[in-house]
Amino acid sequence: MMSASWLFSVMLFAISMSATPGPNNVMLTASGALYGYRRTLPHIIGIMLGCLVLFMAIALGLGLVFERFPIVQQVLRVVGALYLLFLAWKIASAPPPAVAHDGDSRPLTLWQAALFQFANPKAWVMGLTLMASFLPQHGPLWLNAFALAVLMELIAFPCISFWAGFGIAISRRLTTARSWRIFNGVMGAMTAACVGFILY
After folding, report:
1. What membrane topology does the annotation report for this chain (predicted)?
2. Is the dihedral of CA 114, 118, 122, 128 positive or negative?
3. What is the rounded CA–CA span in Å between residue 200 and residue 186?
4. Residue ranges per domain, the chain?
5. What are the pLDDT digits (tens) for 122-171?
6. Closest Cα to residue 44, out of 24, 60, 14?
7. Which residues, at least 6 apart from 199, have a Cβ–Cβ distance to it below 8 Å?
8. Which ranges in 23-109 belong to alpha helices (H)?
9. Which of 85, 84, 66, 24 is nearest to 49 (CA)?
10. Type and span of the H or E element at 193
11. Exposed, middle or buried: residue 83 (CB in 10 Å: 0-12, 13-18, 19+)?
12. Which class for 60: exposed (0-12), middle (13-18), buried (19 or more C-beta within 10 A)?
């Protein structure tokens, strides 16, 4: 049985990592503004699912692959950076909600969001720190890792949902096509800026 201090420490870590800005939260803000919470929910669940699988993989030895084969990490960085730039362009060029709902514009799907976590540097930092700092030493490794990853994601859910809600709140003040273009441009630029965290 884990102590109350351990649980409190995990909660503080999860909140501090999940609630702070990063590629996921920037994209959720834009998605919440453009599509609302219900249509953004698959994106949120995809983030949680992708992180859970990533954290489990790290605990079971994926981090060692990066240590032994640095080229794998470099390839993943480049792919992640290119994909993030593509998402930034999609956000920056997205039409206002009335047009987006009727046209081809769509929020990120569950599987797209899940796969992106493997190229998301913040998700890697979270997973490596989580498993190195909080993984219990007694009991089956896979079960401890799964329980810890699930706990992390349960705490993260309201934190990342907040960013989608923040986008919804902002959207109520965007009353013209020009204001939407500016907002989408800023969100796209912020998403593109996250490439710096991947490459450097």
Report:
1. Multi-pass membrane protein
2. positive
3. 22
4. 23-199
5. 888 888 889 888 988 888 888 999 999 999 999 999 999 999 999 999 99
6. 24
7. 77, 78, 81
8. 23-57, 63-68, 70-92, 97-102
9. 24
10. helix 177-193
11. middle
12. middle
